[in-house]
Amino acid sequence: MRKFESHVQWIRHAVYKEIVKRVIQEDFETTKYNIPKTIIPGTTAVSRCCVYKEREIISERVDLAAAPINEKKPIIEVIDIACDECPAERYIITEACRGCLAHRCIQVCKKDAIQIIDGKAQIDYSKCVSCGKCRDVCPYNAIVDVMRPCIKACKSKAIYIETNKKIKIDYDQCSNCGACVYQCPFGAITDRSEIIALVKAIETCKKDKTTKLYAVIAPSIVTQYNAHIGQIVAAIKKIGFKDVIEAALGADIVAYNEGLEFINRVVENKESFMMTSCCPAFVRHVKTHYIDLVPHLSTMVSPMIAMARFIKKIDPMAKVVFIGPCTAKKEEKREVDLEDAVDYVITFEELEALIDAYNIAVSECRDEPLNNASYFGRLFARSGGVVDAVATIIKEKSISELSYRPIACNGIEEVDKALKLAKAHKNNFNFIEGMACVSGCIGGAASLTHEAKEQKKVDEYAKLAIECTISESLRIIDYTGIQLHRK
Predict the structure, then answer these.
(1) Could you give the maximum distance between any two Cα atoms of the chain, in Å?
(2) Answer CATH for 196-474 from 3.40.950.10, 3.40.50.410, 3.40.50.1000, 3.40.50.720
Protein backbone atom coordinates (compact mmCIF):
# COMPACT_ATOMS: atom_id res chain seq x y z
CA MET A 1 0.00 0.00 0.00
CA ARG A 2 1.51 3.32 -1.11
CA LYS A 3 1.78 6.12 1.42
CA PHE A 4 0.66 9.32 -0.24
CA GLU A 5 2.29 12.69 0.42
CA SER A 6 -1.03 14.37 1.18
CA HIS A 7 -4.76 13.81 1.33
CA VAL A 8 -5.07 15.83 -1.88
CA GLN A 9 -2.80 13.37 -3.67
CA TRP A 10 -4.81 10.47 -2.29
CA ILE A 11 -8.07 11.97 -3.58
CA ARG A 12 -6.60 12.52 -7.04
CA HIS A 13 -5.35 8.93 -7.07
CA ALA A 14 -8.69 7.54 -5.89
CA VAL A 15 -10.58 9.42 -8.61
CA TYR A 16 -8.25 8.25 -11.39
CA LYS A 17 -8.32 4.68 -10.11
CA GLU A 18 -12.11 4.52 -9.99
CA ILE A 19 -12.35 6.02 -13.47
CA VAL A 20 -9.93 3.46 -14.90
CA LYS A 21 -11.74 0.53 -13.27
CA ARG A 22 -15.03 1.64 -14.77
CA VAL A 23 -13.57 2.22 -18.23
CA ILE A 24 -12.06 -1.29 -18.16
CA GLN A 25 -15.49 -2.68 -17.21
CA GLU A 26 -17.07 -0.53 -19.95
CA ASP A 27 -19.59 1.03 -17.58
CA PHE A 28 -17.97 4.39 -16.87
CA GLU A 29 -20.76 6.48 -18.41
CA THR A 30 -23.50 4.69 -16.45
CA THR A 31 -21.65 4.55 -13.12
CA LYS A 32 -19.46 7.67 -13.06
CA TYR A 33 -21.84 9.48 -10.72
CA ASN A 34 -21.34 6.71 -8.16
CA ILE A 35 -17.63 7.55 -7.87
CA PRO A 36 -18.01 10.29 -5.20
CA LYS A 37 -19.89 7.95 -2.84
CA THR A 38 -17.45 5.14 -3.53
CA ILE A 39 -14.52 7.32 -2.50
CA ILE A 40 -16.27 9.07 0.40
CA PRO A 41 -18.99 6.78 1.79
CA GLY A 42 -21.14 7.49 4.81
CA THR A 43 -22.14 10.90 6.15
CA THR A 44 -18.94 12.09 7.82
CA ALA A 45 -16.81 14.66 6.01
CA VAL A 46 -13.10 13.95 5.75
CA SER A 47 -11.75 17.50 5.47
CA ARG A 48 -14.44 19.89 4.20
CA CYS A 49 -17.44 21.46 5.88
CA CYS A 50 -19.69 18.62 4.77
CA VAL A 51 -19.56 15.36 2.88
CA TYR A 52 -21.82 16.74 0.14
CA LYS A 53 -19.33 19.43 -0.81
CA GLU A 54 -16.54 16.86 -0.87
CA ARG A 55 -18.55 14.69 -3.22
CA GLU A 56 -19.43 17.60 -5.47
CA ILE A 57 -15.74 18.44 -5.82
CA ILE A 58 -15.01 14.82 -6.73
CA SER A 59 -17.80 14.97 -9.33
CA GLU A 60 -16.09 17.96 -10.92
CA ARG A 61 -12.79 16.08 -10.94
CA VAL A 62 -14.50 13.21 -12.75
CA ASP A 63 -16.05 15.57 -15.30
CA LEU A 64 -12.65 17.20 -15.96
CA ALA A 65 -11.07 13.79 -16.49
CA ALA A 66 -13.89 12.82 -18.87
CA ALA A 67 -13.51 15.98 -20.97
CA PRO A 68 -11.10 15.38 -23.88
CA ILE A 69 -7.95 17.46 -24.12
CA ASN A 70 -8.10 19.76 -27.11
CA GLU A 71 -6.44 22.94 -28.25
CA LYS A 72 -9.25 25.12 -26.88
CA LYS A 73 -8.98 23.91 -23.28
CA PRO A 74 -6.10 24.87 -20.96
CA ILE A 75 -4.07 22.07 -19.37
CA ILE A 76 -4.24 23.58 -15.88
CA GLU A 77 -7.74 24.23 -14.52
CA VAL A 78 -9.21 25.72 -11.34
CA ILE A 79 -12.05 23.85 -9.62
CA ASP A 80 -13.89 26.89 -8.23
CA ILE A 81 -15.90 25.02 -5.61
CA ALA A 82 -12.68 23.52 -4.18
CA CYS A 83 -10.95 26.90 -3.77
CA ASP A 84 -11.17 27.74 -0.06
CA GLU A 85 -10.86 31.50 -0.56
CA CYS A 86 -7.59 31.85 1.31
CA PRO A 87 -6.84 35.40 2.63
CA ALA A 88 -6.46 37.91 -0.16
CA GLU A 89 -4.15 40.06 1.95
CA ARG A 90 -0.56 38.91 2.16
CA TYR A 91 0.47 40.25 5.59
CA ILE A 92 -1.73 39.91 8.67
CA ILE A 93 -1.18 41.21 12.20
CA THR A 94 -1.98 38.45 14.68
CA GLU A 95 -3.02 38.40 18.33
CA ALA A 96 0.66 38.25 19.22
CA CYS A 97 0.86 42.04 18.70
CA ARG A 98 1.61 43.68 22.08
CA GLY A 99 1.07 47.26 20.95
CA CYS A 100 4.65 48.00 22.02
CA LEU A 101 6.05 51.49 22.43
CA ALA A 102 8.74 51.04 19.78
CA HIS A 103 6.22 50.98 16.91
CA ARG A 104 8.96 49.79 14.55
CA CYS A 105 6.30 48.54 12.15
CA ILE A 106 4.94 52.08 11.79
CA GLN A 107 8.38 53.63 11.40
CA VAL A 108 9.49 51.25 8.66
CA CYS A 109 6.31 51.51 6.58
CA LYS A 110 6.91 53.99 3.74
CA LYS A 111 3.23 54.01 2.76
CA ASP A 112 1.80 54.96 6.19
CA ALA A 113 -0.31 51.81 6.01
CA ILE A 114 -0.01 50.88 9.72
CA GLN A 115 -1.68 52.60 12.63
CA ILE A 116 -2.37 51.79 16.29
CA ILE A 117 -6.03 51.25 17.14
CA ASP A 118 -7.13 50.22 20.63
CA GLY A 119 -3.53 49.47 21.52
CA LYS A 120 -2.91 47.12 18.57
CA ALA A 121 -1.31 47.64 15.19
CA GLN A 122 -3.62 47.41 12.18
CA ILE A 123 -2.90 47.45 8.45
CA ASP A 124 -4.77 49.66 6.01
CA TYR A 125 -4.78 47.38 2.98
CA SER A 126 -5.78 50.19 0.64
CA LYS A 127 -2.28 51.60 1.22
CA CYS A 128 -0.27 48.41 1.84
CA VAL A 129 2.04 47.29 -1.00
CA SER A 130 2.99 43.96 0.64
CA CYS A 131 6.68 44.83 0.96
CA GLY A 132 7.01 42.82 4.19
CA LYS A 133 9.21 45.32 5.99
CA CYS A 134 6.84 45.46 8.96
CA ARG A 135 7.10 41.72 9.42
CA ASP A 136 10.88 41.88 9.37
CA VAL A 137 11.12 44.42 12.21
CA CYS A 138 8.37 43.16 14.53
CA PRO A 139 10.08 42.01 17.78
CA TYR A 140 7.22 39.62 18.60
CA ASN A 141 6.86 38.02 15.14
CA ALA A 142 3.26 39.19 15.31
CA ILE A 143 3.05 39.95 11.58
CA VAL A 144 2.83 36.87 9.37
CA ASP A 145 3.05 36.25 5.64
CA VAL A 146 -0.06 34.40 4.48
CA MET A 147 0.51 34.58 0.74
CA ARG A 148 -1.69 32.01 -0.95
CA PRO A 149 0.26 28.81 -1.63
CA CYS A 150 -0.78 28.77 -5.30
CA ILE A 151 0.41 32.35 -5.85
CA LYS A 152 3.63 31.66 -3.95
CA ALA A 153 4.23 28.54 -6.07
CA CYS A 154 3.64 30.30 -9.39
CA LYS A 155 6.95 31.90 -10.32
CA SER A 156 5.52 32.96 -13.69
CA LYS A 157 3.05 35.25 -11.85
CA ALA A 158 0.09 33.79 -13.71
CA ILE A 159 -2.31 33.49 -10.75
CA TYR A 160 -4.41 36.35 -9.43
CA ILE A 161 -7.30 36.80 -7.00
CA GLU A 162 -10.73 37.86 -8.22
CA THR A 163 -13.07 40.12 -6.25
CA ASN A 164 -14.89 37.04 -4.89
CA LYS A 165 -11.56 35.87 -3.39
CA LYS A 166 -11.40 32.95 -5.82
CA ILE A 167 -8.23 32.52 -7.86
CA LYS A 168 -7.91 32.65 -11.62
CA ILE A 169 -5.11 31.74 -13.98
CA ASP A 170 -3.84 34.14 -16.63
CA TYR A 171 -3.11 31.60 -19.33
CA ASP A 172 -1.13 34.14 -21.34
CA GLN A 173 1.42 34.07 -18.50
CA CYS A 174 1.13 30.40 -17.44
CA SER A 175 4.03 28.04 -18.23
CA ASN A 176 1.99 24.88 -17.44
CA CYS A 177 4.64 23.78 -14.94
CA GLY A 178 1.98 22.56 -12.51
CA ALA A 179 3.61 24.00 -9.37
CA CYS A 180 0.25 25.42 -8.32
CA VAL A 181 -1.35 21.98 -8.76
CA TYR A 182 1.16 20.45 -6.39
CA GLN A 183 1.17 23.26 -3.81
CA CYS A 184 -2.55 24.03 -3.46
CA PRO A 185 -3.48 22.48 -0.07
CA PHE A 186 -7.15 22.20 -1.07
CA GLY A 187 -6.58 20.52 -4.43
CA ALA A 188 -8.44 23.34 -6.15
CA ILE A 189 -6.09 23.36 -9.14
CA THR A 190 -5.67 20.32 -11.35
CA ASP A 191 -4.25 19.24 -14.69
CA ARG A 192 -6.44 17.82 -17.42
CA SER A 193 -6.19 14.13 -18.15
CA GLU A 194 -6.60 11.83 -21.13
CA ILE A 195 -6.53 8.68 -19.02
CA ILE A 196 -9.96 7.57 -20.27
CA ALA A 197 -8.91 7.71 -23.92
CA LEU A 198 -5.71 5.88 -23.05
CA VAL A 199 -7.47 3.05 -21.20
CA LYS A 200 -9.83 2.61 -24.15
CA ALA A 201 -6.78 2.42 -26.43
CA ILE A 202 -5.15 -0.15 -24.14
CA GLU A 203 -8.23 -2.37 -24.18
CA THR A 204 -8.62 -1.97 -27.96
CA CYS A 205 -4.97 -2.92 -28.58
CA LYS A 206 -5.45 -6.11 -26.56
CA LYS A 207 -8.06 -7.17 -29.13
CA ASP A 208 -6.59 -5.57 -32.25
CA LYS A 209 -2.95 -6.68 -32.54
CA THR A 210 -2.22 -4.44 -35.54
CA THR A 211 -1.78 -1.38 -33.30
CA LYS A 212 0.85 -1.47 -30.57
CA LEU A 213 1.25 0.81 -27.57
CA TYR A 214 4.77 1.86 -26.61
CA ALA A 215 5.52 3.52 -23.28
CA VAL A 216 8.30 6.11 -23.18
CA ILE A 217 9.30 6.57 -19.55
CA ALA A 218 11.10 9.55 -18.07
CA PRO A 219 14.27 8.50 -16.19
CA SER A 220 12.94 10.14 -13.01
CA ILE A 221 10.57 7.17 -12.73
CA VAL A 222 13.27 5.41 -10.69
CA THR A 223 12.52 7.82 -7.84
CA GLN A 224 8.87 6.81 -7.66
CA TYR A 225 8.96 3.20 -6.49
CA ASN A 226 10.91 1.13 -4.01
CA ALA A 227 11.54 -1.38 -6.77
CA HIS A 228 14.06 -2.20 -9.48
CA ILE A 229 13.61 -0.43 -12.80
CA GLY A 230 13.05 -3.87 -14.35
CA GLN A 231 10.06 -4.43 -12.06
CA ILE A 232 8.59 -1.07 -13.06
CA VAL A 233 9.04 -2.01 -16.73
CA ALA A 234 7.31 -5.32 -16.13
CA ALA A 235 4.39 -3.62 -14.38
CA ILE A 236 3.88 -1.23 -17.29
CA LYS A 237 3.95 -4.11 -19.78
CA LYS A 238 1.35 -5.97 -17.74
CA ILE A 239 -1.01 -3.05 -18.24
CA GLY A 240 -0.95 -3.78 -21.96
CA PHE A 241 2.07 -2.04 -23.50
CA LYS A 242 4.03 -3.73 -26.27
CA ASP A 243 7.32 -2.29 -25.05
CA VAL A 244 8.82 0.21 -22.63
CA ILE A 245 11.57 2.52 -23.86
CA GLU A 246 13.68 5.09 -22.05
CA ALA A 247 13.14 8.75 -22.82
CA ALA A 248 16.81 8.91 -21.83
CA LEU A 249 17.69 7.42 -25.21
CA GLY A 250 15.93 10.43 -26.74
CA ALA A 251 17.98 12.57 -24.36
CA ASP A 252 21.15 11.04 -25.83
CA ILE A 253 19.99 12.01 -29.32
CA VAL A 254 19.06 15.53 -28.21
CA ALA A 255 22.25 16.09 -26.18
CA TYR A 256 24.50 14.98 -29.03
CA ASN A 257 22.80 17.23 -31.57
CA GLU A 258 22.41 20.11 -29.14
CA GLY A 259 26.15 19.93 -28.53
CA LEU A 260 26.75 20.20 -32.28
CA GLU A 261 24.29 23.09 -32.46
CA PHE A 262 26.14 24.90 -29.67
CA ILE A 263 29.46 24.47 -31.46
CA ASN A 264 27.96 25.84 -34.67
CA ARG A 265 26.07 28.76 -33.21
CA VAL A 266 28.21 29.90 -30.28
CA VAL A 267 31.75 28.63 -30.84
CA GLU A 268 31.99 29.07 -34.61
CA ASN A 269 29.44 31.81 -35.35
CA LYS A 270 29.91 33.81 -32.12
CA GLU A 271 26.31 33.88 -30.94
CA SER A 272 26.39 35.30 -27.41
CA PHE A 273 24.63 32.31 -25.81
CA MET A 274 22.24 29.41 -26.44
CA MET A 275 19.48 27.92 -24.28
CA THR A 276 18.20 24.38 -23.95
CA SER A 277 14.77 23.40 -25.25
CA CYS A 278 14.09 20.07 -23.51
CA CYS A 279 11.86 21.49 -20.72
CA PRO A 280 8.56 22.67 -22.26
CA ALA A 281 7.66 24.79 -19.23
CA PHE A 282 10.99 26.64 -19.52
CA VAL A 283 10.50 27.16 -23.26
CA ARG A 284 6.99 28.47 -22.61
CA HIS A 285 8.32 30.81 -19.90
CA VAL A 286 10.89 32.25 -22.30
CA LYS A 287 8.32 32.72 -25.08
CA THR A 288 5.90 34.38 -22.66
CA HIS A 289 8.17 36.59 -20.55
CA TYR A 290 11.37 37.05 -22.60
CA ILE A 291 10.23 37.18 -26.20
CA ASP A 292 13.42 39.02 -27.29
CA LEU A 293 15.49 36.02 -26.18
CA VAL A 294 13.48 33.38 -28.07
CA PRO A 295 16.02 33.25 -30.96
CA HIS A 296 18.60 31.97 -28.47
CA LEU A 297 16.60 28.80 -27.74
CA SER A 298 17.98 25.59 -29.15
CA THR A 299 16.08 24.40 -32.21
CA MET A 300 16.12 20.83 -30.91
CA VAL A 301 12.92 19.02 -29.97
CA SER A 302 12.66 17.49 -26.51
CA PRO A 303 13.76 13.90 -25.72
CA MET A 304 10.07 12.94 -25.55
CA ILE A 305 9.42 14.07 -29.12
CA ALA A 306 12.69 12.64 -30.47
CA MET A 307 11.98 9.23 -28.93
CA ALA A 308 8.38 9.15 -30.13
CA ARG A 309 9.39 9.95 -33.70
CA PHE A 310 12.14 7.31 -33.55
CA ILE A 311 9.64 4.66 -32.42
CA LYS A 312 7.21 5.56 -35.20
CA LYS A 313 10.01 5.33 -37.75
CA ILE A 314 10.69 1.75 -36.63
CA ASP A 315 7.01 0.80 -36.24
CA PRO A 316 4.57 2.88 -38.34
CA MET A 317 1.64 1.26 -36.49
CA ALA A 318 2.90 2.40 -33.09
CA LYS A 319 0.99 4.54 -30.64
CA VAL A 320 3.31 6.32 -28.19
CA VAL A 321 2.51 7.12 -24.57
CA PHE A 322 4.86 9.35 -22.60
CA ILE A 323 4.95 8.75 -18.84
CA GLY A 324 6.60 11.36 -16.65
CA PRO A 325 6.27 13.84 -13.77
CA CYS A 326 5.43 16.83 -15.95
CA THR A 327 2.11 18.57 -16.63
CA ALA A 328 3.73 20.81 -19.28
CA LYS A 329 4.35 17.74 -21.45
CA LYS A 330 0.58 17.57 -21.99
CA GLU A 331 0.73 21.00 -23.60
CA GLU A 332 3.91 20.22 -25.55
CA LYS A 333 2.32 17.12 -27.06
CA ARG A 334 -0.42 19.16 -28.76
CA GLU A 335 1.78 21.92 -30.21
CA VAL A 336 1.15 22.25 -33.94
CA ASP A 337 4.66 21.34 -35.10
CA LEU A 338 4.95 18.44 -32.63
CA GLU A 339 1.49 16.85 -32.67
CA ASP A 340 2.60 14.02 -34.97
CA ALA A 341 4.86 12.49 -32.32
CA VAL A 342 3.15 11.53 -29.05
CA ASP A 343 -0.37 10.10 -28.86
CA TYR A 344 -0.92 10.26 -25.10
CA VAL A 345 0.81 11.87 -22.13
CA ILE A 346 0.18 10.66 -18.57
CA THR A 347 1.84 11.58 -15.31
CA PHE A 348 3.31 9.35 -12.61
CA GLU A 349 0.11 9.98 -10.62
CA GLU A 350 -1.96 8.61 -13.49
CA LEU A 351 0.41 5.67 -14.00
CA GLU A 352 -0.03 4.69 -10.35
CA ALA A 353 -3.80 4.73 -10.82
CA LEU A 354 -3.45 2.47 -13.88
CA ILE A 355 -1.22 0.02 -12.02
CA ASP A 356 -3.62 -0.17 -9.08
CA ALA A 357 -6.75 -0.41 -11.23
CA TYR A 358 -5.23 -3.32 -13.16
CA ASN A 359 -4.37 -4.99 -9.81
CA ILE A 360 -0.62 -5.06 -10.45
CA ALA A 361 1.86 -5.18 -7.57
CA VAL A 362 5.13 -3.63 -8.77
CA SER A 363 7.15 -5.24 -5.97
CA GLU A 364 5.99 -8.69 -7.07
CA CYS A 365 6.87 -8.27 -10.75
CA ARG A 366 9.89 -10.07 -12.19
CA ASP A 367 12.58 -7.86 -13.69
CA GLU A 368 12.33 -7.24 -17.43
CA PRO A 369 15.09 -5.62 -19.50
CA LEU A 370 14.92 -1.94 -20.39
CA ASN A 371 16.27 -0.58 -23.67
CA ASN A 372 19.48 1.05 -22.62
CA ALA A 373 20.52 4.69 -22.70
CA SER A 374 23.79 6.28 -21.64
CA TYR A 375 24.83 7.49 -18.22
CA PHE A 376 24.44 11.09 -19.39
CA GLY A 377 21.04 10.55 -21.03
CA ARG A 378 19.66 9.33 -17.72
CA LEU A 379 21.09 12.38 -15.92
CA PHE A 380 18.63 14.58 -17.86
CA ALA A 381 16.23 13.82 -14.99
CA ARG A 382 17.99 16.20 -12.62
CA SER A 383 19.21 19.78 -12.65
CA GLY A 384 22.64 20.03 -14.29
CA GLY A 385 22.16 16.86 -16.31
CA VAL A 386 21.93 18.60 -19.68
CA VAL A 387 24.99 20.73 -18.90
CA ASP A 388 27.00 17.60 -18.13
CA ALA A 389 25.76 15.79 -21.24
CA VAL A 390 26.59 18.63 -23.64
CA ALA A 391 30.01 18.99 -21.99
CA THR A 392 30.90 15.46 -23.12
CA ILE A 393 30.11 16.37 -26.74
CA ILE A 394 32.24 19.52 -26.49
CA LYS A 395 35.13 17.43 -25.22
CA GLU A 396 34.58 14.67 -27.78
CA LYS A 397 34.74 17.16 -30.64
CA SER A 398 38.05 18.52 -29.31
CA ILE A 399 36.60 21.97 -28.63
CA SER A 400 38.37 23.95 -25.93
CA GLU A 401 36.55 23.61 -22.62
CA LEU A 402 37.06 27.35 -22.17
CA SER A 403 34.59 27.84 -25.04
CA TYR A 404 31.83 26.28 -22.94
CA ARG A 405 30.62 28.38 -20.01
CA PRO A 406 27.32 26.85 -18.89
CA ILE A 407 24.88 27.71 -16.15
CA ALA A 408 22.27 25.28 -14.83
CA CYS A 409 19.14 27.14 -13.74
CA ASN A 410 17.35 25.17 -11.06
CA GLY A 411 13.74 26.41 -11.12
CA ILE A 412 12.03 29.49 -12.56
CA GLU A 413 13.53 31.90 -10.01
CA GLU A 414 17.08 30.99 -11.11
CA VAL A 415 15.91 31.03 -14.73
CA ASP A 416 14.68 34.61 -14.33
CA LYS A 417 17.99 35.75 -12.84
CA ALA A 418 19.95 34.28 -15.73
CA LEU A 419 17.60 35.60 -18.41
CA LYS A 420 17.63 39.11 -16.96
CA LEU A 421 21.42 39.08 -17.08
CA ALA A 422 21.35 37.83 -20.66
CA LYS A 423 18.79 40.44 -21.67
CA ALA A 424 21.02 43.17 -20.20
CA HIS A 425 24.07 41.66 -21.96
CA LYS A 426 25.74 41.10 -18.58
CA ASN A 427 26.05 37.33 -18.81
CA ASN A 428 29.43 35.64 -18.49
CA PHE A 429 27.85 32.30 -19.46
CA ASN A 430 27.09 31.15 -22.99
CA PHE A 431 24.88 28.11 -22.39
CA ILE A 432 21.73 28.09 -20.25
CA GLU A 433 20.16 24.88 -19.04
CA GLY A 434 16.62 25.85 -18.12
CA MET A 435 14.51 23.70 -15.80
CA ALA A 436 11.17 25.05 -14.58
CA CYS A 437 11.00 22.72 -11.58
CA VAL A 438 13.43 22.92 -8.69
CA SER A 439 15.77 19.88 -8.88
CA GLY A 440 14.73 19.32 -12.49
CA CYS A 441 12.32 16.58 -13.59
CA ILE A 442 12.67 14.77 -10.27
CA GLY A 443 10.88 17.76 -8.75
CA GLY A 444 8.05 17.59 -11.27
CA ALA A 445 4.62 18.62 -10.03
CA ALA A 446 2.99 15.28 -10.87
CA SER A 447 5.57 13.14 -9.09
CA LEU A 448 4.27 10.76 -6.44
CA THR A 449 7.13 11.58 -4.13
CA HIS A 450 9.35 14.65 -3.71
CA GLU A 451 11.94 13.31 -1.30
CA ALA A 452 15.37 14.89 -0.95
CA LYS A 453 17.11 11.60 -1.76
CA GLU A 454 15.72 11.48 -5.29
CA GLN A 455 18.79 13.00 -6.98
CA LYS A 456 20.93 10.26 -5.45
CA LYS A 457 18.54 7.66 -6.89
CA VAL A 458 18.90 9.15 -10.38
CA ASP A 459 22.69 9.21 -10.11
CA GLU A 460 22.71 5.56 -8.99
CA TYR A 461 20.38 4.63 -11.86
CA ALA A 462 22.61 6.44 -14.36
CA LYS A 463 25.60 4.43 -13.19
CA LEU A 464 23.79 1.22 -14.19
CA ALA A 465 23.95 2.22 -17.86
CA ILE A 466 26.02 -0.13 -20.00
CA GLU A 467 27.06 2.71 -22.31
CA CYS A 468 29.16 5.29 -20.47
CA THR A 469 29.09 7.92 -23.20
CA ILE A 470 26.42 9.34 -25.47
CA SER A 471 28.26 8.28 -28.63
CA GLU A 472 28.42 4.70 -27.37
CA SER A 473 24.67 4.77 -26.76
CA LEU A 474 23.89 6.07 -30.25
CA ARG A 475 26.29 3.87 -32.20
CA ILE A 476 23.75 1.06 -32.64
CA ILE A 477 20.68 3.09 -33.59
CA ASP A 478 19.84 4.83 -36.83
CA TYR A 479 17.84 7.99 -36.28
CA THR A 480 18.50 9.53 -39.69
CA GLY A 481 15.37 10.94 -41.28
CA ILE A 482 13.80 11.87 -37.93
CA GLN A 483 12.77 15.51 -37.63
CA LEU A 484 14.86 16.69 -34.66
CA HIS A 485 14.59 20.44 -35.12
CA ARG A 486 11.62 22.68 -34.40
CA LYS A 487 10.06 24.28 -37.44
Answers:
(1) 81
(2) 3.40.950.10
